[in-house]
Every structure is written in C-alpha cells, then in structure tokens.
Amino acid sequence: MTMAKDQKKQPRPKAETPKGFRDYFGADVTERKAMLDRIAEIYHRHGFDPLETSAVETVEALGKFLPDVDRPNAGVFAWQEEAVPGGGSGDWLALRYDLTAPLARVAAQFRNDLPSPYRRYAMGPVWRNEKPGPGRFRQFYQCDADTVGSASVAADAEICGMLADALEAVGIARGDYIVRINNRKVLNGVLEAAEVREDQAEDVLRQIDKFDKVGREGVLALLTEGRKDDSGAFIDGVGLSEAQAAPVLAFLTSKGDSNSETLDNLRAAVGGSGIGAEGVEELAQIAGMLAAMGVGEDRAVIDPSIVRGLGYYTGPVFEAELTFEILDEKGRKRQFGSVAGGGRYDGLVERFTGQKVPATGVSIGVDRLLAALRAKGLAGAEDRGPVVVTVMDRDRMADYQAMAADLRAAGIRAEVYLGNPKNFGNQLKYADKRSAPVAIIQGGDEAARGVVQVKDLVLGARIARDASHEEWKSQPAQTEVARADLVAEVRRILG
Amino acid sequence: MTMAKDQKKQPRPKAETPKGFRDYFGADVTERKAMLDRIAEIYHRHGFDPLETSAVETVEALGKFLPDVDRPNAGVFAWQEEAVPGGGSGDWLALRYDLTAPLARVAAQFRNDLPSPYRRYAMGPVWRNEKPGPGRFRQFYQCDADTVGSASVAADAEICGMLADALEAVGIARGDYIVRINNRKVLNGVLEAAEVREDQAEDVLRQIDKFDKVGREGVLALLTEGRKDDSGAFIDGVGLSEAQAAPVLAFLTSKGDSNSETLDNLRAAVGGSGIGAEGVEELAQIAGMLAAMGVGEDRAVIDPSIVRGLGYYTGPVFEAELTFEILDEKGRKRQFGSVAGGGRYDGLVERFTGQKVPATGVSIGVDRLLAALRAKGLAGAEDRGPVVVTVMDRDRMADYQAMAADLRAAGIRAEVYLGNPKNFGNQLKYADKRSAPVAIIQGGDEAARGVVQVKDLVLGARIARDASHEEWKSQPAQTEVARADLVAEVRRILG
C-alpha cells in the first residue's frame, strides 16, 4: 500500500525502447528463426556443433580489439562488479561485441576437453556501444561458423562450400549468389615481389581497399603519386614507382574466366616470392577441393578483387555476395551485395595461452540476409493469423473455448476473442488486425439449432472490395454449418 | 606490430566464464532448443505471437520491483550512458531481469498498434545481478506466455489448458504432471470471513506460505499463538483466534475428490464474503471452460493448497507440477515438483500510462523442465556424432572431402578429419571424442582399387568390450566396399 502511494508522487516512467535498440514482433521473430534453423541444419550436417556462450564476459577476456575496421569507435557496454568485502575492487564485465572473442575464450578455457580441431557454430545477439543512428543498432544478431585448430586449407574450402549450401538452404537460388575467395598470402607475395617496404604495407592495404570505388586507374594513382578525389581534395599517394605498383594491380585484376586462368595470372603476379607461391598453391588446393565437393565455380570462385578483410585475416579470405538486383531507397537498381564474410586468422587463443592456434571461420550478416530473403519474397513465414472464434453470448465462453480447442486439435491455429464482447464490430476489427482468415460466430439462435456461422474473411474482404451491392448482400462469404462440421468447413476454407 | 609488443608486456588474460555465468555446448543447446520449439508450436497454435524485446532496457522502464519474493536481494546489471554533449547526464540502462517488465513497457509503448487483447509469448535469457552460488546463475532462460488486456477468466483457463498441452508436447506423459489452480480472491474472501485486520493480512499470507512445510497443525499454530520450529526457537503467531483461523485452514484444505466438491468446500470457507463468492465463481468458470476444452481434472485441477504466488497475483494463480519421482542428490526418491507458475496481475501497464490493464500469464522454468526431460530420457536430441572421414594421405584431401560431401548430400552428418593426419591413432581418438558412429578409411592401396574401408565404431566398441581376441582379430566391424557403395553402406550401418 505504501509503495503505491510512493509511486504516485513520482513522474511516470517513459515507455520507450532504449535508443539504438529495437523490439521484434511476430513475423520478425519467426522469419529470422526459420532462416537460422535452416542454416543450423546445414552447419550441423557438416559436423559443426552449437555453442552458446554467456552474453557477459570479463572485459579482460574480451580485450579491447574490435575486428571491424569500418567501425573504429565501436565500444562495449561495460560495468564494474561490486567490490568483494575485503577482496579489493570488483571485476569489470561487459556484453560481448561479437561471437569470435567468446569463442577464443572458450577455446582456451576448454582446450583439454574440446575435440581438436573444434568446429562450432554460434547464433545470437551481440552488443555495440555506439552512437545510435539510422539503420545502426546497438544490439544485432550474428551467425558464425568457425573451425579452431586446423592449419589445413581444407578447413577453409569446407567453410566456403558450407556457406554456399547454407545460402541455398535459406532459399537463395544458384546463380543469385557467389562466394568469392582470395588469400592474404598472395597479397603478401605481391608486396614482396613489388619490393614494398614494411612501413608502406599498411598504406598499400588502405589504398587497394578502395579498388571497388576508384577502379584500376584510381588505385594506380593512390599507390604512386596520389590523386584528386571527387571533392577536388588531393589525396597523397603511397609513393611507389609504377613498376612497383604493377604487380599489385596485376593481383587485383587477375580474375580470369576460370579458376585455372585466375591461378595462372596470380602465379605471374607474385613473381619469385615464396610466400606468394604458397598463397597461390593454397588457393589452387581450395579450388580443387571445392570441385571435389561438387561446388562449381558458379557457386564459389577464386577472385583476387575481393580485398575487404585482407588487412585483418592472415590466409584465405571469403565473401558471399548476392548478385540479384533490388531497388535501393531511391528506386535505383543495384546488386544486393555482401551478406557474409570470413577468413583465416591466427592468434585467436594466443592472447590467453601464448600458443598460436590456427582458425578459420565465416560470419553471416543475419539482418542483411533476412532483408534479402524478404526482398525476394522468400522469408517464408506464415503471415496468416489465427481463426477467431467470436463471442456473441458471454455466458457461453465454454462453448466458444470448445470450438477453438477442436480447431487446434486438428492442427489449426485458433483463438477465442477475449476482449469485451459487447460490441460485435470491435470483434471483427480485432479479427482483421489479427489477419484472421476465418471468424466463427454462434449466437443463441444458432446454438439452439446446433449450428455455427463460418465467415471467410479473405473472401469477404475481396467481395467488399470488388462485388456489387446485390452480391454483397447475399453474403457468399458466410456459411452456416452444423457444429459437428465446424472443423471440416474451416479446413475447406483454409484450403 | 607495436600492438603485439605491447601485449607481451601485459599479463595474459584469464580464460574464464565470468562468475555465475555458463556456456552451453552441443546437446545443451539443441535439447533446449528442441524443447522450446515444441512449446512455441503450442503457443502459436493458441494464437499467441512471438515477441523478442531488446535485452537492454532503461532502468526507469524496468522499475525497481522484482517479482520473486524468494529473491529479495535480486538486482540488475546496470550502467550509465555517456553524457550527451551539452545535454546533461546519460540515461541508466540495464539488462532485463525477466520477460514481464519488458512486456509491460511494450504493451504501453505500442498500445495503439497491438491487437487488444494481446497474446504474446517470449523466450530468451534474463539476467540477475546476484551473488553467484551453486546452481544459482546470473543468466538463465525464461519462457513466458501472457494475455494483456483481457479481464475474462477465459484467458486464465486458456493459459492453464495451453500449459498442459505444452507439457505433453515436450514429452511429459498425461499423469506425470498436474496444473493446479487457486485464486487470490478466494483467499481475500476467507480473510474477510475470518475478520482478519488489514494490517494482519501480510502476516497471514507469510504463514500460509509455510503450509507445504509445516502442515495444517503448524499453520494453525502460526496463525494463532505461535510455535517452536525445528531448531527449538519460538516463532510468534499472528494472534488470530482459533475461530478466525478456522476459515483459513478450511480454505487451505478444501481440495476434494473433484472440482465440484472442492468448489462446494470453498463456498463454505468464504462464508458471506462478496469477493470470496466472486473468486469461487471464477474458479467454477475456469473449471467449466477447461472441461469444455477437453482438459480433464487429471491434467488441470482446482487446488486451494497452492499458495505460492498468492501474495503477488490478484486473481487466479496456477502452478504446474511434475508428479513423477526422481532421485535427489542424496539418492532419495522425491517428486520432481514445480516447473511453471503464473497468474493474473494488474498494474502491468499502469506504471507507464496510469490506466489499469488486466493481464494473466505463465512462466515455464526452462532449466527445470529440461532437467526433468533429461531425468526421464526425453530430452531427445541426437547424441550421435558425425561420420568421420579419416585422412590417410594428405595429398588426397579433395577425395576425402568428396566422400563427406556425398554423405551429406544423402542427409548424413559427416566431416573430414582436419587435424594433423600423421598419427592415425589420433584420428580414431578424435572420432571417439566426436561420438562418431562410423569412420571412413581409404589409403593409397584402397584408392588404387576403388574401395573404402567402413568402420562401424559402435559395433567395434562393443566387440572390443565383449569379444574374444580371435573374434576381435577378424575385424567384423570393418567392411571394405566399392567407393560407389560408400553412402549405401554407411546408411546400412546407421540403420
């Protein structure tokens, strides 16, 4: 009682989702779940085991290193534990910012118990303490698959093939996607062949990352003397000679009509570099294994123009793109673009144990892939609401409940109207809001005669839109059937 | 490069799950998911829509009121947002501690968009900032279903029936569970009939909560003059007269052999109290509706001895108990006990809008129900690992990948060994750790002859355990088949 009084004095709390967060309703939840279930099925069939780590990690275990180079200011949501009495200050805890850092912690913590190599997949929310903005959320889903403890590029090939399978499993048709594969070692070989100094390497990486945007000539200028950008500002070049830039450009443009042609071009580009030759040989092995797995070059292909992530990964890198066109916000056609990326990285477990453990993995952009499925009409969740049993006589709720129970026992989604039944129009408005395909009506008269009215709301809406007044008055969308035939009639309408 | 050097100077981070948190591996994830999927299917069929709110709420929206009376010190994990430049201090945010508080926020925030009544279910982790202890975790799953905006006890009846259906859907046999239903209004009527003063009501509630433990005589003593507890300490009584205590005890022990007998007993216990009569009538309606829905008294029953939660809820309360026996940690038989509870509550949305919105709901204890399924051997996830294709010749990885791909194309879970293949014994140890049912072996000799060795690891393990040395040497668990027959042979062994 005192509590209620206290609360009255305080202003009411605002009912708002915190800034940068969002809630998912109905089909938002089921469509994503259906997609992730199909992906999980493919991962499982490839021998990957699910792992669900706690959402919370110690800040110490997370480290301060966020992998996304395009989100340099990304931070974490962190707080300090209460001090332990007599035990000094409390640990700092934080929400995970991705699924890889927790995998690193788990791989180190349970290294004596886990199989090695350890294949795992993980799906779940991650949190970023960023300034919220349009389309930029502070909680979002990730869906990762990684193999920890295998140095073999067979692990990379497997993940590329699995990614192609996963995209088809969720409904993306063959020909509407492509997995592109590149290798950081080839780039390292090219830099060696070009005699790029170690202190220039990072600059070179930054410039070739613009290949998509500025093209061959643009990158050539940026690697050598610099260029003016669109705004007219002059961008300094790295200062390579044209002769030095040549192998880098040869690398970026070495994609041929087949993997074998591309590999030949790459062999030329790396010249006499040992690491370069190793990198090309790895790509050749991946190409061979994909072919053996029945994954053709129309599904996964060697493509050295893929440079995103080359700075972060240490060996093969991969990216899945959807190649069909959609209309962007301005109504222009454009390719849908990247929905997944990954590659090989070392040092995952090293932070914890001092031992290098090779690992490779891929992360699917859950929201982007779901958006793609929606754009293609493939999200596939049922958007039909339940059959609504209306309430004409509130004393006979048990009868209405029995009708809904009969429908459910036949596998039909059904519910009784639970609001105030006084206004029947409100009940039909409710059925409309629920996207109900059918409404059931039984007043006292019908009950006495042992019948129910079954209203086909889909047909009814069409008639209301298209039919003449005469047709409408004949109420073809409403049928009277015996109570015992209720389930059969609803089933007939649902088809 | 500088980063690596800096890191070397720092001590290595500890690879540890934060205290009170845990990680879920393999079957832990899939078994829980399979259970929740089956529950969601039942909820969906009853017209409930999924809702997934953000894990983070403003502290203001959460409020400071935790519903679990047995966890009075429960707190939240909270942190303050960075100050907005020129805009004062940042909001306090926190992880949700249950799924009801976010529902309240959503029901208020989206009240103009949501159907009314709004049936929703939610499944996901919640967080409690508590002192970790044995079996007490700071992140755990909840699974809730609630109907917001219906004052009708039809909503309560529906949830009780749905709960019974959900328990059967996950595998609990009829007869192994019971949903018990009580009503706070009946208790209020009893208190009125007993002329308990308002300032005594809370004390009375606290004492009847001990009914399970101390029984009829114990509660009688506690309601009147007090009693000695097991340790010999004297517990003060509430100070009622025996005449006043009588209706309370009549209420607690009014369960008869049938709902109709129980309802008669309750009518007597509430005497002339209006609120009490209303409460009994509500229970009678619920009983009637459950019968109409085909939910017999062997599945859901009126039981006034259920007092847990009576202090929190405002109308009907329900609790699902598993009635089969398990062995506790000390090897003693005991009933499994409660796995779900809920009831009717007001004031859900009122904090935000000032308007009372009636609501009723149930929460399933996900970990407890899963533990029950495991105890009965019903958790049902496949514990068979993948077929492991071993690597005899590392230059022929593509061949091994092709074998795994063939198996997967036939729907069989399969993987290639991706560790260092030098030591074949390690590969078989790996297959064992993976619980692989079958290993595939193909050396150069077999490859030349176009055959593979298919090793039945389950049969092999049985032979190694039971068979004579001679039998063992004949290797009945290993078959040589043509490469083209690989899939058929594996399928035969998997049965």
UniProtKB/TrEMBL annotation, chains A, B:
GO BP, sorted A to Z: histidyl-tRNA aminoacylation
GO MF term set: ATP binding; histidine-tRNA ligase activity
Residue ranges crossing the lipid bilayer per the database entry: none
Region (Disordered): 1-22
A Pfam family assignment: HGTP_anticodon
InterPro entries: aa-tRNA-synth_II (IPR006195), aa-tRNA-synth_II/BPL/LPL (IPR045864), Anticodon-bd (IPR004154), Anticodon-bd_dom_sf (IPR036621), His-tRNA-ligase (IPR015807), HisRS-like_core (IPR041715), HisRS/HisZ (IPR004516), HisRS_anticodon (IPR033656)
UniProt enzyme class: ligase
Family annotation (SUPFAM superfamilies): Class II aaRS ABD-related, Class II aaRS and biotin synthetases
Main subcellular location of this protein, as a coarse class: cytoplasm
Domain Aminoacyl-transfer RNA synthetases class-II family profile: 41-386
Catalyzed reaction equations: tRNA(His) + L-histidine + ATP = L-histidyl-tRNA(His) + AMP + diphosphate + H(+)
Subcellular localization(s) per the UniProt record: Cytoplasm
E.C. number: 6.1.1.21
Keywords: Aminoacyl-tRNA synthetase, ATP-binding, Cytoplasm, Ligase, Nucleotide-binding, Protein biosynthesis
Residues the record lists as binding L-histidine: D98, L99, T100, R128, Q142, D146, R308, Y312, Y313
GO annotation, cellular component aspect: cytoplasm
HAMAP family linked to this entry: His_tRNA_synth (MF_00127)
Family the UniProt entry places it in: Belongs to the class-II aminoacyl-tRNA synthetase family.
Subunit details: Homodimer.
Name of the molecule in the record: Histidine--tRNA ligase
Organism for this UniProt entry: Paracoccus alcaliphilus
The gene coding this protein: hisS
